[in-house]
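Need tokens for this chain, all 134 residues.
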Amino acid sequence: MKILRFCPLLFSALLTLGCGDFNHRMAVESEHTIKDSAFLSISSAQVIPESEFEIIFAPSEQVEITEAHIVGASMYMGKIPLFFKKTQNGSHKAIGMVGVCSEKEMEWQIQIFYKDMTLQQQKTATLNFVATNV
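Here are the structure tokens for all 134 residues:
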């Protein structure tokens, strides 16, 4: 029962330590991935914390995105939801945003869960990228 009294304090401490100064810039080493004929990339070479950047998902087949978000891969930061819109050329675009952390480098992962409408199969596309405080 004594442990339960310390839970709110522990939660507050973890929340405080997970965040940092929002005025720092982060350089992103972005890559792209092609898996199951789906291309996923970040359009920006550099991301500033709490600023928007574009995410492009271009599957070769007809898909229905069921869930998409960004998660911290090197540290738990919760889920940042992504809302994709289909473009005229068949790709999907979303605006993403990440926060800054107390660590010098932070690895993030974009996760897209979608249904291949041709094969009626559930698939996942992921992209990891590293953000570094400048």
